[in-house]
């Protein structure tokens, strides 16, 4: 992952509502969640949710798939794992063993 992509992802996740949306989608796994279900679960108006989903999508962390009148959103696990890897790749490079990253998510 490049610095620019990591910065965009971290900026998107640095907002409370977007972090909550992303965590909800991560918990949902590959099945994802319908936009209306996300709004209901987080008690968000549709326009507010749309604004935050747009930011997460632009950062490459979320993808939406339209099916008729509904959109199903899914977390991009490859992007999430790349971000975690980026953050931990040089962890304790001068003192190995103190900072072992956890296993990657493969949902």
Q: What's the number of domains?
A: 1
The proportion of residues forming helix, as a percent range, comes to 40-55%
Enter the CATH topology name: Arc Repressor Mutant, subunit A
Structural class comes to: alpha+beta
> What is the 3D form?
elongated
Main β sheet profile? 3 strands, antiparallel
Distance between the termini: 20 Å
Structure characterization notes:
By secondary structure, this protein is an alpha+beta fold. The protein has a single domain (3-88), classed as Arc Repressor Mutant, subunit A (Orthogonal Bundle). Helix content is 53%, strand content 13%. The protein contains 5 helices and 3 strands. The chain has helices spanning 3-13, 16-28, 35-42, 46-58, 77-88; strands spanning 33-34, 62-67, 70-75. It has a 3-stranded antiparallel sheet. Helix 2 (16-28) crosses helix 4. The longest helix is centred in the N-terminal third of the chain and has 13 residues, at 16-28. It is elongated. The mean pLDDT is 90.
